[in-house]
Specification:
This is ROK family protein. This protein is an alpha/beta fold and 326 residues long. It is built from 11 helices and 13 strands. The strands form 3 sheets. A 5-stranded mixed sheet has the order 3-2-1-4-8, sandwiched between helices. The protein has a 5-stranded mixed sheet with strand order 11-10-9-12-13, with helices on both faces. It has a 3-stranded antiparallel sheet with strand order 5-6-7, with no helix packed on it.
């Protein structure tokens, strides 16, 4: 059996931990998926991270891995890439000012690198996914919230204090809907899955006729973004209007970012892209309407390719990038 070097990438979420063992050339050698158990507190989460990494180390030995180049962790912020500290996570009990890099280095005696989860997803798509071979791109993660990652000249853009690329919090409507960040009118407030549900509920309460009420059995607590897209695909007038409006809001944001960043490609990731062309066509339409000809002329807007492994693959890529291997 040939010997090879392995890298472990950990995608840390409030609900689950998805970890991969990969080779330098991007082959997935093993995967570990387990609940993060954030509601049980920080010590339990750390124990879950340790167990996940140790499981992959054992799998690596079986796969002929001779040594490990390091561990990469993609995590929701706010965090400091340079200090290796996660400042806060509202969904993990007691997760405050956690020096995760130091903790993991002491536990495993390996190089450890921390990255924002959306940045990691962008880097993963740049390395092995929809952005492979592309040096200028940005990625939007469309889910419960909206995250973002920017690649400039093949490198992740972090900003002066590791707070760059909070793309979901660009304001698209002054004085608009309130956002979880405390501001009003953010892209996330309108165009995330949460925003889609809120706008649909508001429309239903204003007596707009829709098959959605039947799909949710007249209980608004059952409403999900997926059901709105399902109704739209069945030709429901209200749902189609909500989807077009969502595409318009996203297109305004994407168009503005195209003007600012002049990327070669825009990648849309996250659960909402499962809606397919019914959403993607609207985003493309309004992005083109809201960007300059010189900026938009050659840009492509595409769905992500790596699926649920994008964050973990990006965490592996973070190790390789910081070590100067890619």
């Amino acid at each position: 059996m040939s010997l090879k070097k392995g890298i472990i990438g950990v995608d840390l979420g409030a609900t689950n931990i998805n970890s991969l063992l990969m080779s330098e050339d991007g082959e997935i050698l093993a995967r570990d998926f387990r609940p993060s158990l954030g509601y049980q507190g920080k010590e339990k989460v750390l124990s879950q991270i340790f167990s996940s990494i140790k499981t992959l180390q054992k799998e690596g030995e079986k796969s002929g891995v001779s040594s490990f180049l390091g561990i990469g962790v993609g995590s929701p912020g706010p965090l400091s890439v340079s200090k290796g500290i996660i400042y806060h996570s509202p969904n993990i009990l007691g997760w405050e000012n956690i020096p995760l890099v130091d903790i993991l280095q002491k536990e495993f005696n390996l190089a450890v690198f921390l990255e924002n989860d959306a940045n990691a997803a962008a880097l993963g798509e740049w390395w092995r996914g929809a952005g492979k071979g592309i040096d200028y791109l940005f990625l939007l993660t469309l889910g419960t919230g909206i995250g973002g990652g920017i690649i400039i000249d093949g490198n992740v853009y972090h900003g002066a204090w590791d707070a760059g690329a909070e793309l979901g919090h660009m304001v698209i409507k002054e004085g608009g809907m309130s956002c979880g960040c405390g501001a009003r009118g953010c892209l996330e407030a309108y165009a995330s899955a949460t925003g889609v549900v809120k706008r649909t509920i508001s429309a239903i309460k204003h007596n707009h006729k829709t098959i959605i009420t039947r799909l949710i059995q007249n209980d608004l607590n059952n409403l999900t973004c997926e059901l709105v897209f399902k109704a739209a695909k069945q030709g429901d007038e209200l749902a189609l209007w909500i989807v077009e409006e969502t595409g318009r809001y996203l297109g305004i944001g994407v168009g503005s970012l195209i003007n600012i960043l002049n990327p070669q490609i825009v990648i849309l990731a996250g659960g909402m892209i499962k809606a397919g062309d019914i959403l993607l066509k609207q985003v493309k339409k309004y992005a083109m309407l809201n960007s300059l000809k010189a900026s938009r002329e050659k840009v492509e807007i595409v769905p992500a390719k790596l699926g649920e492994n994008s964050g973990a693959i990006g965490a592996v890529a973070t190790v390789l990038k910081r070590k100067g291997i890619i």
